[in-house]
């Protein structure tokens, strides 16, 4: 029986009951197997660009006896997955730039019925900025800690609305650092990275200061 770590559990918590899932970059296929096994998804596509991870996924699916519900697919992003095959699309464990590319390379990502659950390993600020610039909305965002590392997960949908956002929003997104310790930890890591980059570019120091103010402001 598969159990998910807190990073994949957080991704799973955003998937809609009864949805058809596509897990892009599935590797071991733990997430689609867990979601089908636990009755959250009726069916799932476990997709990967590389055959090796896909065969690891096939093994997990076989061991769980879920070959009728979870299908594997060799696919670069969403290229080999058609619009009518998935409602909720998870892209987890990749860099923010690659996640953005996968979304914008897919013509049906702007379908308002599709939801994306995104877990960037790096450059979440770049991903959020590109999403906002292209009419995507962050419906919800949360953070978790796994193996002492802090991760964020975004629930995203196309709204077509142009969002007016300040320079802090790509970093802070929909997080609530005053109410949630894990959100605070995630934003502190952003501040540390900005301060490191500030050695070469003072603009990053200003940004770090603004981000600090947005967290601690009038406390
Ligand atoms: C670090 S693993 C993440 C596995 C799992 N999603 C997770 O979060 O634990 C990244 C996986 O993404 C796959 N991958 C990388 N680029 C991809 C692309 N353009 N399309 C589909 N899969 C991709 C890799 O082959 C690898 O199996």
Short description:
The chain has 8 helices and 7 strands. It has 219 residues and is an alpha/beta fold.
Report on the structure:
With 219 residues, the protein is of the alpha/beta class. It folds into two domains: 6-164, Rossmann fold (3-Layer(aba) Sandwich), CATH 3.40.50.150; 166-219. It has helices at residues 6-13, 30-37, 51-64, 96-104, 124-133, 169-172, 181-197, 202-216; strands spanning 19-24, 41-48, 70-74, 88-94, 115-120, 136-146, 149-158. It has a seven-stranded mixed β-sheet with strand order 3-2-1-4-5-7-6, with helices on both faces. Strand 6 and strand 7 form a beta hairpin. Helix 4 (96-104) runs parallel beside helix 5. It is globular, with a radius of gyration of 18 Å. The model has no long low-confidence stretch (mean pLDDT 96). Bound molecules: S-adenosylmethionine (SAM). S-adenosylmethionine binds at residues 8, 24-27, 47-50, 53, 76-77, 92-94, 102.
Detail the topology: elements first, then pairings.
Layout: H1 6-13, E1 19-24, H2 30-37, E2 41-48, H3 51-64, E3 70-74, E4 88-94, H4 96-104, E5 115-120, H5 124-133, E6 136-146, E7 149-158, H6 169-172, H7 181-197, H8 202-216
Parallel strand pairs: 1-2, 1-4, 2-3, 4-5
Antiparallel strand pairs: 5-7, 6-7
Bound molecules: S-adenosylmethionine.
S-adenosylmethionine binds at residues 8, 24-27, 47-50, 53, 76-77, 92-94, 102.
